[in-house]
Amino acid sequence: MKHTSSYLLALMLATIIGLAACDNDKPKMSKIAPPTGTAKTPQGLHALNVSAGPEPFSKADVTAYFQTHNLPRNLASNASIQVESVEFMSSSDVSSRLAGERTGLADSARLGFVTLTGEFLLTGPSGSHVARFTRAYAAFDASSGNLLMVGTLPEASDNNNANAGKKPRG
């Protein structure tokens, strides 16, 4: 009996010491300093070649791009994507079109705002429903041709851009 008690006591001490040691293995939390210096502007994804002049790329250039590239997270085929319009405007004008959504660029930066039509079946977080849209947009940096932003637009009959980029409830 004496050996059993000693054995149980030793086992309990070993367990307590082991648990205490495990607590010390946890990483210590430390504060992370925010970045310093000048903020970098978004670079985007290489998409279009640009040329000098008032229109650095054309509707035909954008159409050719979307014949071989789809919108991110779009389950529908890119074959249905049609380029409705290409407009060159300032970053602040793009933000106004998108109900205040910021581009990350200086307000005066020049962008190509592209309106797209077609079938857009966009996925969300795991377990969410697929959202169906018929209008979308893409914003390209006019100086580099890089694709900076994509999203959805309200239906053409809806003149209120307040819902631009918003997913329907349901």
Query: Could you estimate the helical fraction of the residues in percent?
Result: 10-25%
Give me the number of helical elements: 3
Largest sheet, order of strands side by side?
1-2-3-4
Radius of gyration: 27 Å
- Please report the distance between the alpha carbons of the first and last residues: 69 Å
Strand content: 15-25%
What is the general shape? elongated
Low-confidence sequence ranges:
158-163, 166-170
SSE layout and pairings?
Layout: H1 2-24, H2 59-68, E1 82-90, H3 91-97, E2 110-122, E3 131-141, E4 147-152
Antiparallel strand pairs: 1-2, 2-3, 3-4
Keywords:
single chain, 170 residues, alpha+beta, four-stranded antiparallel β-sheet, 24% helix
Folded structure, characterized:
Strand 2 (about 110-120) and strand 3 (about 130-140) form a beta hairpin. The chain has a 4-stranded antiparallel sheet. The termini are far apart. It contains 3 helices and 4 strands, in the order H-H-E-H-E-E-E. With about 170 residues, it is α+β, with helices and mostly antiparallel strands. About 25% of the residues lie in helices and about 25% in strands.
